[in-house]
TrEMBL record:
Domain FtsK: 219-410
Assigned keywords, A-Z: ATP-binding, Cell cycle, Cell division, Membrane, Nucleotide-binding, Transmembrane, Transmembrane helix
One Pfam family in the UniProt entry: FtsK_SpoIIIE
Ranges that cross the membrane: 33-53, 74-93
Binding residues annotated for ATP, in chain numbering: G246, A247, T248, G249, A250, G251, K252, G253
Lineage, uppermost ranks: Bacteria, Bacillati, Actinomycetota, Actinomycetes, Streptosporangiales
Biological processes annotated in GO: cell division
Protein name: Hypothetical cell division FtsK/SpoIIIE protein
């Protein structure tokens, strides 16, 4: 009651019970002005100390010119402002990376904390439903810190007791628009704390050329593109199976060809064999000479090739049994990567039931037993529905390129991936902006990573084929 009716208002309140003449008159305690002043002064002091503690550099930069102007006159104040502007300017011009690492991102974080996040925190939290206004008081999640990287703001938040990650994941749109960002992603920092990632710009907006062919022969992980944070996107192909899903024109070819490109030195060294199934006869036929005899286009040939891969797998399993549990690629036992473009042509859309059964059985056998003996599958498809691809869960690593519908994201990346910010259905259909852009969810981590595959042009593929033939 006191909180609802501050000051003298409570004094005027009179209430009675409905059946009696008992009169309620709440007691009003008058707070001496000095107590109020002391409380406000204490809060101000605590706020200043907190500000200094959290943002020492920014606070000194603002406070020093003011202090100098007060104690030594306005000339000193002006000179220090000039120094504050010139020194960082010079530093920025002469050595940008160290300026950004040591000062630039921190200053930006301070500015964005004050101007964007603190300013909008209360209304965004209340309107999105993440905070509550109860009995005259706001109960808000706590904004703990903000860190700026070259492309995003990472905001650390302490949830209200009783909140779940899903409460936040359900409101990513409100958070993004509330704080003026294009999107928002959420991940768990530790119990009760979350990281919210608000991109300021899209570092993957421009296509990137094919990654240079590695100099050493290796079965991976191979670099196939770049991650949103600027780190190389390394794709593991040996010891796993990879499913690439994307609508037509999403850039499945660039993932497949970038992976093959990264394995090229190992192919030349005889440590890797790439077996290609190309039922559309478009994508892989372009570099056909890379695959030698292990290329199939008709469904019957594809079934034969898959069964041959199963035979290799079973022969190795018999030989390795009791001797080794993992595969190390050698010239005698190379890593076999079975690449299938548009796998649905062979499984779902195949009219010959016999062939369909053979192909499905061979793919299921390879994906369940192949990885320990050095046989991996890299399959691409457009439609990830279970009716089309009933073995999609047998692929440990999945890549979602641009998808047509939001429900398809969880079908590819697993439950809750879209809630955590894997907006594969929002990737631009304009090839320059969105082809090759994808979300990846690895076996080891529930948080999807945004990536872009490098574009391997026809000329690059031709050069690769020539390099292998040479
Ligand atoms: N990584 C990329 N970066 C930039 N542009 C790309 C990239 N990948 C593909 N593209 C562009 O997008 C077009 C379509 O790519 P691609 O054929 O690989 O898509 P797809 O998913 O295989 O489509 P489909 O299923 O119809 O074969 C290409 O012609 C190219 O212009």
């Amino acid at each position: 009651m006191f909180r609802k009716l501050p000051g003298d208002e409570a004094q005027r309140l009179v209430s009675t019970t409905p059946d009696t003449a008992v009169v309620f008159r709440p007691a009003v305690l008058r707070t001496p002005a000095i107590v109020t002043l002391v409380i406000f002064a204490w809060r101000l002091l605590a706020g200043l100390v907190k500000l200094l503690w959290r943002h020492p550099v920014a606070s000194v930069i603002v406070a020093a010119p003011c202090a100098l102007a007060c104690w030594h006159g306005w000339r000193w104040g002006l000179t220090s402002i000039a120094a504050v502007v010139t020194v960082p300017g010079l530093w920025f011009t002469l050595h940008r990376p160290s300026f950004l690492r040591l000062a630039g991102w921190r200053l930006l974080a301070f500015w964005r904390l004050v101007w964007i996040y603190r300013r909008h925190w209360q209304p965004v939290m209340i309107i999105s439903g993440l905070g509550r206004h109860l009995r005259g008081r706001d109960y808000l999640p706590r904004l703990l810190s903000i860190r700026c990287t070259s492309w995003a703001d990472v905001v650390t938040v302490k949830m209200l007791s009783g909140q779940a990650v899903k409460d936040w994941a359900d409101r990513l749109d409100q958070l993004a628009h509330g704080f003026g960002a294009r999107s928002c992603r959420v991940s768990i920092a530790r119990a009760g704390r979350l990281h919210l990632v608000f991109p300021r710009r899209d570092p993957l907006a421009t296509p990137m050329p094919a990654v240079p062919i590695p100099e050493t022969a290796s079965v991976g992980p191979v670099r196939v593109g770049t991650r949103e944070d600027g780190a190389p996107w390394l794709l593991t192909v040996h010891g796993t199976h990879v499913l690439v899903a994307g609508a037509t024109g999403a850039g499945k070819g660039s993932v497949i060809w970038s992976a093959i490109r990264g394995l090229l030195p190992a192919v030349r060294a005889g440590l890797v064999e790439i077996w290609a199934l190309d039922p559309k006869r478009m994508e892989l036929s372009f570099g056909r000479s890379l695959f030698g005899k292990r290329y199939a286009a008709t469904p019957a040939d594809c079934a034969d090739l898959l069964e041959a891969a199963v035979a290799v797998m079973q022969e190795r399993a018999d030989r390795f049994a009791g001797h080794q549990r993992n595969h190390t690629p050698t010239v005698d036992d190379p890593f076999v990567l079975v690449v299938v473009d548009e796998v649905a042509f062979l499984t779902a859309y195949q009219s010959d039931k016999g062939l369909k059964l053979r192909i499905s059985a061979a793919l299921a056998t390879l994906t369940t037993q192949g990885r320990a003996v050095g046989v991996g599958v890299l399959a691409a498809l457009q439609d990830p529905r279970k009716e089309v691809m009933n073995i999609r869960n047998l692929f440990p690593d999945k890549i979602a390129l641009r998808l047509d519908e939001s429900e398809q994201v969880d079908m590819v990346l697993g439950d809750g991936a879209r809630d955590r910010g894997a907006l594969a259905d929002h990737i631009s259909p304009i090839p320059e902006q969105g082809a090759g852009v994808a979300y990846v969810r690895l076996e080891a981590s529930p948080d999807p990573i945004r990536v872009r595959a490098a574009y391997v042009s026809d000329a690059d593929i031709r050069a690769m084929a020539e390099a292998v033939a040479a």
